[in-house]
Amino acid sequence: MADGTASEPKEIQTNLSVPEALSQWREAERTAAVARRGRLAAQMATAAADEASLAAEATAKAARTSLEAATAAEHSALKTAHAARMVAQAANADLADADAEMAVTDLAEAAGRDEYKRAMNRARERNEA
Fold first, then answer.
1. How far is CA 34 from CA 9, 31, 59, 96, in A?
2. Angle at Cα 114 formed by Cα 108 and Cα 117, nearest 5°?
3. Side-chain half-sphere CA neighbours of 108 within 13 A
4. What is the DSSP letter of 15?
5. Helix count and strand count (H, E) for the chain
6. Mutual orientation of helices 70-128 and 18-64 as an angle, nearest 10°?
7. Angle ∠(25,96,92) on CA atoms, nearest 5
C-alpha cells in the first residue's frame, strides 16, 4: 500500500512436508485476508472522501448565494473541497495499491494451496508404495 506498511508475500517453497505446506498455505491465506481488509478500508475511505468532496462543493455553491458574511464560508468550503479531493486521490492510490497487493497475495495463496496438494499427493504415493 502507499503508506509503506504492506508486507511482501513470502516466496512459496516447494517439496515441503505436508505440515510445512499446510503452514505455508495458512500463512498465505492470512496475508491475503489482511490485503482484502486493507482493500475494503481503502474502498470505504474513497467513498467517504468522494462524498465529502461533493458535500463541500455543494456547500461552496450555497455560500456563493449568501450575503457578504458567507464569503468566508465559501473560501473555507472550497479549501475543504480541495482537501477532500486530495484525500480522495490518495485513497484511490491506496485502493490501486491494495488491488495490486491482493492480486499478489491471491497468487501466493494459490501457489501455497497447490504445493500443499502436491505434498499430500507425495505423501499418499509414499504410503501406497
1. 11, 5, 37, 15
2. 145
3. 24
4. S
5. 2, 0
6. 170
7. 140
Q: Which position has the higher pLDDT, 69 or 84? A: 84
Distance CA 6, CA 35 (A): 8
C-alpha cell at 76: 473555507
Answer whether 18's CB lies under 8 Å from 116's CB: yes
pLDDT in tens, 12-44: 899 999 999 999 999 999 999 999 999 999 999
Residue type, 53: S
| Confidence (pTM) | 0.51
Q: Which H helix or E strand runs over 93? A: helix 70-128
